[in-house]
Amino acid sequence: MSEAFGSDVTQVNRRRFLSGGIAVAGGGVLGAFGVSGTADAASDAGPRQLGGGEIGSGWTFVAADGTAADGSALASAESVAGLRPAIVPGTPLTSMIANGEYPDPLYGHIVTDTVPDSLKDTGYWYRVAFRVPKLIPGQRFWLQFDGINYLGTVWLNGSKVGTVEGAFKRAVFEVTDIVAKADGVAWLAVLVGKLEYTDPPALPSYASGVTRGGRNGGPTGVTLKNGPTFFCTAGWDWLPTIPDRDLGIWQPVTWRTTGPVRVADVQVTSTLSPDLRTAEVAVELALDSAAEKSVVVTGSLDGREFRRTVSVPAGASSVTLTSKEIACLRLDRPKLWWPNGYGEPDRYRLTVGVEVGGQVCDERSVDFGVRRIEYTTPMRSPSGTVSQCLAITVNNQPILVMGGNWGLDEALKRIPRERLRAQVRLHRDANLNLIRNWNGQSSTEDFYAACDEYGILVWQDFFCSTEGPPPENVARDLANIRDCIVRFRNHPSILLWCGGNEGPPPQPLIDGLDALVAELDPQRVVLTSSAGDTGANPVDGYRSGGPYHWVPPAKHFSLNDGTQWPPFHNEVGSYSIPTLEFMRKMLPEASWEHPDDFWADRDVNGNGGNGGGAGYLRLTAERYGEVRNLPDFARKSQLMNYECIKAIYEAPVAHMRSAGPYPRTGVIMWMTNPAQPSFVWQMYSHDLEAHSSFYAVQHACRRINAVLDAQNFDVVVANHSRTVVRGTVEATLYGLDGAEFAGSTVRVDGVAGSDRAVVGSLASQVKGAPSDIAFVRLVLRDPRGAEVVRNFYWVENPERAAGFAGLDGMPAAAVSVIAGVSREPDGLEVAVDVRNIGKSVALMLHLQVYDVRTGERVLPATFSDNYLNLIGGEAATVRVRLDGEQVRRHPEVGVRIDGWKIDQRASRLRGRGVAVTFNQEALATRPAVSTFGR
């Protein structure tokens, strides 16, 4: 049985974890899925030496302070009082939620009012019995823990096996002697030790205007002294204090059998020639042998097999294979791994094993990518010195980094594989090409595998932040860093390693990290921190620093106009309000119309940059008119989201490469993935619904685009494809009545790949608008007249800028919506044809797919487009993919529509095998008496 078998079993169990409700948000019950009895590890392995599986069910747990039993008793058949069913992988709190002890605290509750903070003040015993095979001569048995937060002590059948320290370090124990005496069943007990340093909870206060006391990392920040853990769970401006601090066995526990020689690790490195025509692959095997042996190393790559006989000593050793000895390790015209939007993220699979005496002792499969990365370009800084600035080139193609920051994959570490894949897929669909793994808080095999699959580069931070004291145990920190590098370095998605967040770690950590990368992964760059590099050959030209709150689009263009240093900005964000349906799900009904501490626990105060939640609400009213009720807040917020977040990406796009003296080289939005239900820093909701922020990102990050500079109304053609762009740009301007009042067509003679060009200006036309507000439609066409891309803006007349409250005075739009369904082998596709059949502009038309029986949204739903802006007579077709599991759970689906102002009587809705309706609740924005905030 190969290593791939263990991986497959892991995926099956974790999918079951997902189907139990872990990925569903909003009072979602995790569900029971066989957490009592004996774990289904495996049955007799027979005469073969290889076997393995996940120990994913049958677990129980108890607070360590609440039991007198010790490890020897728990790791036995002895009865122990107080044990309750446990979710593994999971945390104590996720198990308690599954057992009905607490509701999901992220929905309709204030976390710290719902779950006692004392959960963090104890360790936890976990216990499981699992079947083990009868070992044959020479066979060895291994236990592996992929992640325990924070300290783990492992017992098996009454014997202490070993310990592991830190959340991001694996532990592998050989327990052959114990299992050989087990008589078919092994009893496993794990003591999960608590954090060494904790703070009291950080509490939400809407009235304060700041989030959780105005500081990140808890009241004092002492949690950060622990180092390699989920220190953000102390409380951050995007995360409430998590009562158990995400302790627990949070990653899978597996067992494996091997022969006398074990493959402990496989490192694959590829060196791609400058002309991209050949690649040299090197394979280094770390072996663990029970005795000195003559070993045959076998393998295959790209359908070509190889064998080589080597002699290995007892204990640990390594074997290196190169194309000098193994011809198939030289690849001619290799398939390349490309970042999203530049080509396919192709990968190779290497299978390698070791044989002794004609029997396979161990075998591993590794997927890897072939790509060539250059990290810097010389640029003269404001001081006059020329430095090497962060500017990424992949496979000889300059890449404008358009990324998103992840603070934590999920607040309670409910991260089954399919949820992670869906989150990363949303980044792919939004046209992003990078995720920054902030402080390494989302470091799992599933995460990197998804990034490999979808072509998403990873900026990999480690576990140090300026929000508190540095890690106290440097050796523990470096041990976790070492294991992360060894464990994940084969993933082509990993772009670089970074010491931590916003400031340098202590010098011993800097020196240790630099030494580890030089030893273990010298092909990649290592940065000291996200705010600057102090290495021997420092990388310059990047920073953090926001703004983290809402600003008008022109502000982002002024910060990214090519005159501002530095050219790479890795943290900038805004409020990002979800849909009406999601706000109602994440808040108790009594708080829907009345912002309060429940809103604050969902981060509405942000970092206080707009004056907190109350200040942001005032700003929304100033820009778009009085907020009358929650539906009105939802629709106005979607416009606020769209215009600001679109500018975060469009501004760098419009000023890359030839813009100077400091052309943009990258932007990473703070944030794109929400760890919890939230009002800020996201492009989709915690339940994976893409609201207007997502489509703002998607529209801004198209590889070929026509952009309106919000600062000066220049029209810019941005081209980060690999081909020259030629054609024309049609610019048309409309008034509030939908009538065209100006227009022009300009020729695009040729915009080089990875560059941009100003092709015209609309400043005079905008100033000549007949009202305070104008709509601008840009259409880029190729030389044959075919539409390449369409872009749309609402802008203020700079001669009398007064915000957008006047949008409420525009005539309502009449639309035609026709939807049909086509069944496919793996699901179905809903096609929605939307047309503006009136004269007024149809603004921010929003489609949802919903379950006709329950009215609930079907999520995650992959829309080809959404939040449509259509002038009179214009049409668009939107396609929505639902997979087979979604179809099974939602056999009858419908489509509903809302938008800024819709004339329902003049509109036409029609479904072909699918219901089509107006979203009446979202459209109910004009109550007889305003209720919001009153």
From TrEMBL:
SUPFAM superfamilies reported for this sequence: (Trans)glycosidases, beta-Galactosidase/glucuronidase domain, Galactose-binding domain-like
Pfam families, per the entry: Glyco_hydro_2, Glyco_hydro_2_C, Glyco_hydro_2_N2, Ig_GlcNase
Membrane-crossing segments per the record: none
Superkingdom of the source species: Bacteria
The name this protein goes by in its record: Beta-mannosidase
Gene Ontology molecular function: any one: hydrolase activity, hydrolyzing O-glycosyl compounds
Species, as recorded: Amycolatopsis echigonensis
Residue intervals of the Glycoside hydrolase family 2 immunoglobulin-like beta-sandwich domain: 261-371
Gene3D superfamilies: Galactose-binding domain-like, Glycosidases, Immunoglobulins
One biological process term in Gene Ontology: carbohydrate metabolic process
